[in-house]
Amino acid sequence: MRRVFTKAAGLAAVGLLAFATAQPAQADALSSQPGHAAAESAAYFVMTDITWEQFVIKLTKPGDIEHARELVSGETTDRPHVFTRIMKRQAPYNPRWSYHNNPDTTQFFDQAIEVCDATIPYVEDHLDEAGGAFLPGLVWCDWTSRLIREIPAP
Question: Which pLDDT does position 41 carry in this prediction?
Answer without folding.
Answer: 87
